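Proteins fold. Shown next:

***
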Amino acid sequence: MGAVLSTKKATKMGVDEVEVVESCMVAPCQETPRRGMWLSPLDLMLVNRGLTPAVYFYPYRSGLSDFFDVARLKAAMAMDGRLDMDGNGVSALVALVAFYPLAGRLGMDGNDRAEIDCTGEGALLVVARSDLTIDDLCGFLPSPELRTLFVPRVEDYSPSVLCAVQVTFFKCGGVALGTALHHVAVNAISAFHFLQTWSAFSRVGGAAALELPFHDRTLLRARPPPFVHSDAFSVFCPKLNLSVEPSETVVTQAFVVSKDQITTLKRACIGSDGGRVSTFYALSAHAWRCVCVARRLPPDATTRLTFPASVQHSMRPPLPPGYCGNGIIWLGAAGKVRDVTSSESEDLVFVAGQISSAVRRMDDELVRSVIDYFVMTILRSTSHET
């Protein structure tokens, strides 16, 4: 999530609009495992993605004396023994104790294979202030300005840090929470789990009742020997190129879809069986059609929609709740352009059905085939073995 600066304000804003007043490494207060954490093939595929930035905005809430209190934030992240979080002297479990890999560093094992070195060195916490207000920002789109102002620059401290957070206090009393978490350590689901845990410990300390993370990534190890099912590539997309040529300009735009519009799209996707259609299927089908029309693709051409899918519930047995690691593969749905772009309402049933069919075909065998494929091809060619 993020915000893009307005055209008027963007010309006046730079790094000097935010002043860093404190930066420190927050380490777990309790002893955590010291070991090299093995990374699965699905983790290693993202080792070069680096840190994933995100920014969350919080308007000021009057009547809360401890609104984003820095001492409480530090205590909840590392449990500073000088602060009694729950009021009765009971030490609470804290975020970097539960998510101890995030307090480590990215490293290499003896075979030059990437791993998380669980050193307990800590996460980077930056506190900043700004004379801007939240109203000076408009929209909620990713932008280079947003990252420069509100996401901590890890390279200024330690390039191997896996978790960095910046808390910026606005003149209006609101707060921007900027995070930079390494993709090899967590995906979006795990990152949100960490933030939820930290938030809960900040609010209620030891009274927080949350699902703990599960750190054993060997559940996604390749099979001995690895084997790729012949049907896997009918839905699995092994290579996804999202790079942009230096001469190209990427424009980010958000489209607001109302509840009534979503309901209309869902109805257009319901087939003769009357089965339920999810919001994801309906919106994806509509977006796929719009992109094909905008690109003016030849009617006889084959078009392919790719999208990420979680493997958690497709495996047998399923991955445990709270699995902390990357568990996403890319699937693809294909069809002729003429079928995808048809203006007949019943043909949106076909488009949504192609997406639904790809999702339904993701089972344990497909997931295992994807993992084995990565090990047999891409990872082996880059010296990352199983």
